Amino acid sequence: MKRPIKKFQDWMTVITYAEAGEAEMGFRITGFNAPGRKRVAKEAAEAVKSNPNQAAAETDIQSLNDSPVPAVEPNPRKRKLEVLVVDDEPIVGKRLKPALSKYGYDVEIFENPVAAMERFDEKEFDIVVTDLRMDDLDGIGVLEHIASKSEKTKVIFITGYATVENAREALVKGAFDFIAKPFKINDLRMAITKAALSLGYMGAVAGVPA
Questions:
Q1: Claim to verify: residue 187 and residue 126 sit in the same structural domain
Q2: 18 and 111 both lie in a single domain
Q3: What CA–CA distance (Å, rounded) separates 123 from 103?
Q4: Which domain holds residue 56?
Q5: Model pLDDT, residue 76
Q6: What per-residue confidence (pLDDT) applies to 21?
Q7: Number of domains in the chain
Q8: Are 159 and 133 in contact (CB under 8 A)?
Q9: What is the largest CA-CA distance in the chain?
Q10: Residues 50 and 115 occupy one common structural domain
Q11: Any residues with CB less than 8 A from the CB of 149 and at least 6 apart, and which?
């Protein structure tokens, strides 16, 4: 199950870096060589056929091969990327807060998704990392609440119940990325970085090493 999801994540990474004017960085991160670039674009084109946002996605994919992609305008005022992590497993928050904070992100952790959304109503976060299956309010509910409040906030799912169907549902409903547990911290960091790049943040704010 993880292999097709990983492929999906890889071409999403390439596309997102391309949108930020850093296509070559996306290819280096995912490890695609010249033939691989054509293959991943083809797989991406096939995958988005089931996506209601197909036309926009196909334009992004085609741009990888056919035309340069303009860089996103950076936000010079932002000092720290604000990240909200929602997971009802205490060990996840204890692991992620120090790991992500060391990259310069401002991280807040919540085990209760309802309380997390109350906090989100008080403060708009750049990125929300949420588990998929939780009591009281699941990850899809979190995504829908965020979408109703903020157009710019990016939502990244982390879950131990990863299936292609779950990934597709989350992405179709507007999630930015979908990561299967267990995952390496660097996998999540790269997802956060590409989300930050898509928001227009660059350099250290986005978590890109100098």
A1: yes
A2: no
A3: 21
A4: 2-66
A5: 46
A6: 53
A7: 2
A8: yes
A9: 48
A10: no
A11: 120, 121, 124
Residue type, 129: V
Q: What is the CATH number of the domain that holds 153?
A: 3.40.50.2300
Place of tokens 């109350």: 118
Find tokens 């033939």 and name the residue.
Answer: 35
Nearest CA to 85 out of 101, 74, 70, 72 is that of 101
Interatomic CA distance for residues 128 and 116, integer angstroms: 10
Query: Is residue 71 situated within a structural domain?
Result: no
Whole-angstrom Cα distance, residue 155 to residue 45?
A: 23
Other Cβ atoms within 10 Å of 113 Cβ, number: 22
Same domain flag for 31 and 94: no
180 shares a domain with 118: yes
The encoded tokens of residue 144 equal: 């829908």
Do residue 112 and residue 197 come from a single domain?
yes
Mean per-residue pLDDT pooled into runs of 10, the chain (210 residues): 54 58 59 54 49 41 40 54 95 93 94 97 95 91 94 91 74 87 89 92 77
Same domain, 188 and 124: yes
Which DSSP string corresponds to the chain? -HHHHHHHHHHHHHHHHHHTT-HHHHHHHHT--HHHHHHHHHHHHHHGGG-TTHHHHHHHHHHHHHS--PPPPP-TT--S-EEEEE-S-HHHHHHHHHHHHTTT-EEEEES-HHHHHHHHHHS--SEEEEESS-SSS-HHHHHHHHHHH-SS-EEEEEESS--HHHHHHHHHTT-SEEEESS--HHHHHHHHHHHHHHTT--HHHHT---
Position 112 scores a pLDDT of 96
